[in-house]
UniProtKB/TrEMBL annotation:
Annotated InterPro entries: Acyl_CoA_acyltransferase, GNAT_dom, N-acetyltrans/Recomb-assoc
Keyword annotations from UniProtKB, A to Z: Acyltransferase, Transferase
Pfam families: Acetyltransf_10 (PF13673)
E.C. numbers: 2.3.1.-
Protein's UniProt name: Putative N-acetyltransferase YafP
Protein's UniProt keywords contain Ubl conjugation: no
Alphabetized PANTHER family for the sequence: ACETYLTRANSFERASE (PTHR43451:SF1), ACETYLTRANSFERASE (GNAT) FAMILY PROTEIN (PTHR43451)
Domain N-acetyltransferase: 5-158
Any GO molecular function: acyltransferase activity, transferring groups other than amino-acyl groups
């Protein structure tokens, strides 16, 4: 990971900036795997910021920061559902997502969970597979009038937190 990147816990005041990072990431990084109409629905201007923000409560949530700039974030429920993991387009492939995921997996192991799950975009599937997540099923999810394909994936926590593939990066 880029040594100038650090992780810290989420604070409610982070939500507006994280929302903008989410929208920008979907519009740039995910645009290769989804149509313009799907991207517009997923990263819509009509998303209720208060509801989006409320999803952080009662979760393990972390923010990645580099030189006082927010570059990524992730959150997971205490039941082991990894809801969101987004990294700025300018910080892709620098270990940010890996560090966020590792931190959440460590929380899940400390909570003695046996399984972590997520609903991964087409874009994110290879990343999660590198961490031993397995595709359980493909899903078509309705999002503000558009259908988006994603993949329900799970990872057993009986495995090491970092896979050999991830460690070799």
């Amino acid at each position: 990971m880029n040594p100038s990147i650090r992780l810290r816990r989420f604070h409610p005041g982070d939500a507006p900036e994280l929302f903008l990072l989410f929208r920008e990431t979907v519009q740039t990084v995910n645009a290769a795997d989804y149509s313009p109409q799907q991207i517009a629905a997923w990263a819509s201007n009509s998303i209720d910021l208060a509801a989006w923000t409320a999803r952080f409560s009662q979760r393990w949530a972390y923010v990645a920061v580099c030189n006082d700039r927010t570059v990524g974030f992730a959150d997971m429920t205490p039941a082991g559902y990894l809801d969101r993991l987004f990294v700025s387009a300018h910080y892709q492939r620098q270990g940010v997502a890996r560090a966020l995921l590792q931190t959440l997996l460590e929380h899940a192991q400390s909570a003695q969970l046996s399984l972590v799950s997520t609903d991964a975009s087409r874009t994110a599937v290879p990343f999660f597979q590198a961490f031993e997540f397995q595709i359980v099923r493909a899903q078509n999810v309705e999002c503000r009038g558009e259908v988006l394909k994603n993949f329900h994936m799970t990872r057993s926590l009986g495995q090491p937190v970092l896979s050999p593939l991830a460690r070799s990066e």
